[in-house]
Specification:
Blueprint: H1 5-37, H2 51-63, H3 90-117, H4 123-167, H5 172-192, H6 197-224, H7 269-288, H8 337-342, H9 344-349
Organism: Culicoides sonorensis
Protein name: CSON002607 protein
Transmembrane segments: 12-38, 98-118, 130-152, 186-211
């Protein structure tokens, strides 16, 4: 699984929620702007001396008044002073409204796709939907920045014009309209930048998710075998042999290099008792025959001297056992010749264990 998924999923959920709320709000504002531009809105308000009513009328006349139609209850003569100011025209706001309507709808769809498909089961496709959402978010953020710059320009122009009106000879009604026009420009500036804070949240969230896109793509390539640290694209360099392609070899125990202990083989209890009996018998024999205790110093004998073959050898006899080719025991465990001479049949039956000196 993608190791940073527990950080990615909460960011995706937050991005989907904030995208849904913003897109629906901007779709509603775009539709209201389009309806107002075509005069399908009632402007029957309270007397224009009311500040709230004057602000609404100025807002409509400044950015949404088409010119060839007049809504009911609207007095255009009071706002003719706005024609002398070089600000964004209502036709430009109308084009911007249609653009935001389309972008907000696509952004709304991308937010839903981001919420549904970015999960553990569709990790390989998650980068595509994150790309789609980030692309739409950056496009809308750039559009917000451009519109915000134009609204800031309008605010600066209207502020300069208002200063001329205050220090010039103008009626109080014209000054009131310019004051309301400056307020409207400030409101439009805040709407363009989405309250300033939300715009920065959108940009930072897009940058954070795009960083996860590159991490997911790298994770998918490594998991699928497209990128392997043991493989080098540069043919001029030599890479170490891939261990996974070697034939299977069992693991060997070589002991600890820092110690001189040699592991001893496990000996069962029966074998231990047998060895003890042999050692006791050998010790008893050496006590009665001390001259043979150091017989190995004189070299081994090729054949026993005490064994006679006067009886001859008959290959047809059935009581003669088969030749024994097993390896000889150590000298310390061999029986002396006297015991072999006294009990030849017993020695032959146990020839695989007891050997002659």
């Amino acid at each position: 699984m993608y190791p940073s998924f527990h950080f990615l999923r909460p960011a995706v959920v937050f991005a989907a929620i904030i995208t849904t709320l913003q897109s629906l709000t901007w779709i509603a504002m775009a539709l209201t702007s389009i309806i107002a531009y075509y005069c399908h809105i009632s402007m029957e308000m309270e007397p224009q001396s009311n500040v709230k009513s004057l602000l609404g009328l100025t807002f409509y006349r400044q950015y949404f008044y088409k010119g060839d139609c007049t809504p009911n209850g609207f007095d255009n003569s009071l706002f003719s002073i706005l024609d002398s100011v070089n600000i964004v025209k209502p036709i430009d706001i109308h084009a911007i409204s249609w653009t935001y309507l389309a972008l907000s709808f696509i952004w709304f769809v991308s937010g839903l796709l981001l919420l549904v498909f970015v999960n553990k089961k569709n990790l390989k496709l998650s980068s595509f939907f994150i790309y789609f959402w980030v692309f739409n978010t950056l496009i809308i953020s750039i559009a917000d920045l451009i519109i915000g710059i134009f609204m800031a320009r309008d605010y600066s122009i209207i502020s300069d014009k208002l200063a001329e009106f205050i220090f010039g000879i103008q009626s109080s009604e014209s000054i009131s309209v310019m004051l309301q026009a400056r307020t409207v420009s400030w409101i439009m500036l805040g709407i363009a930048f989405r309250g300033f804070v939300i715009w920065f949240i959108n940009v930072l969230l897009a940058c954070y998710l795009i960083s996860h896109v590159f991490a997911i793509q790298n994770h998918n390539r490594v998991k699928s075998g497209y990128i392997n640290n043991a493989y080098m694209h540069n043919e001029t360099r030599h890479s170490s042999h891939i261990i996974g392609y070697d034939p299977f070899a069992p693991k060997m125990f070589y002991g600890n290099g820092s110690t001189t202990d040699i592991p001893r083989p496990q000996i069962n209890k029966a074998q231990t008792l047998n060895n003890q009996q042999r050692a006791a018998a050998l010790s008893l024999h050496l006590e009665h025959n001390p001259e043979k205790e150091f017989s190995y110093l004189h070299g081994g004998r090729s054949r026993p001297t005490s064994l006679t073959f006067s009886r001859g050898y008959n290959p047809k006899q059935n009581n003669i056992p088969n030749p024994d080719y097993s390896p000889e025991l150590p000298r310390a465990l061999r029986l002396p010749d006297s015991i072999i001479d006294e009990h030849p049949q017993r020695v032959l039956r146990n020839s695989k264990i007891y050997k002659r000196y």
